[in-house]
Specification:
Undecaprenyl pyrophosphate synthetase, alpha/beta, binds 3-methylbut-3-enyl trihydrogen diphosphate, binds magnesium ion, about 15% strand, 6 strands
């Protein structure tokens, strides 16, 4: 384990969340189909994982497919699902070898059966791995996640197992898909867009945000190191002074 240059151990983020954006633009700039951008983008995941493993960052969450992304043309959606399936088929051995625990958040029931089953298999197989928790956000929307939690809380209150007066922030956090995972310290978005696009809205309340103009297929290990360096320079105040 080695810290990225200039980052002391106590300034490393514990959890990095990434909005992997810009695959379509990367392809368009090269006169290629958008799908080729997604294919190249899926390769960039490896560099981010390597950066986290090398630096000793224990949690990495990747926004791979949003609830809203189902609105895209059917052939693009199908290609993305196929890429997910292939990613799991080809990388499970590597996930095990590198001691990575895979998790997923979102409405996984929306995914095609084949990809969902592969995902569940790799999640189960890697459950006891300890070097890095890699969470894929798939068919994920933060408002849906919060709505699901609210519905669960209402159910419990109605059944009498939860007293409304005792509901605090922890009652909500523990009913989100991310229960048990620390909130992200660092949120990275590629391709220059200054928005959060319905990602982890509750969990990023005090995350440091780094937006890079690099398009996702061009984003490599050193770019995540650079984001960690930027994070280390920030002064997190949490409303204090
Ligand atoms: C990110 O790249 C991948 C997904 C959202 C699935 P985009 O496909 O959004 O790429 P741009 O934003 O059109 O360049
Ligand atoms: C956010 O990117 C979702 C993912 C990276 C999976 P989008 O490209 O879908 O977001 P918008 O449409 O630019 O907000
Ligand atoms: Mg986009």
């Amino acid at each position: 384990m080695s810290n990225p240059p200039g980052v002391p151990a106590d300034k490393l983020p514990r959890h990095i969340a990434v909005i992997m954006d810009g695959n379509g633009r990367w392809a368009r700039e090269r006169g290629l189909p958008r799908i080729e951008g997604h294919r190249r983008g899926s390769e960039s995941v490896r560099g981010c994982i390597a950066a986290c493993l090398e630096a000793g960052v224990p949690y990495l969450t990747l926004y791979a497919f949003s609830k809203e992304n189902w609105q895209r043309p059917a052939d693009e959606v199908a290609a993305l699902m196929l890429l997910l399936d292939r990613f799991l088929a080809e990388r499970t051995a590597e996930i095990m070898e590198r001691n990575i625990r895979l998790q997923a958040i979102g409405h996984l029931q929306d995914l095609p059966d084949k990809a969902r089953k592969r995902l569940e298999t790799t999640i189960a197989k890697s459950a006891d791995n300890t070097a890095l928790t890699l969470t894929l956000a798939l068919s994920y929307g933060a408002r849906t996640e919060i709505t699901d939690a609210v519905r669960q809380i209402a159910r419990e209150a109605k059944a009498g197992s939860l007293d409304p007066e005792t509901i605090g922030e922890e009652a909500i956090s523990s009913r989100l898909y991310t229960a048990g995972t620390p909130d992200p310290d660092l949120l990275v978005r590629t391709s220059g867009e200054m928005r959060v696009s319905n990602f982890l809205l509750w969990q990023i309340s005090y995350a440091e945000i780094v937006v890079t103009p690099k398009l996702w297929p061009d984003f490599a290990k050193d770019d995540l190191f650079a984001a960690m360096q930027e994070y280390a320079r920030r002064h997190r105040r949490y409303g204090g002074i």
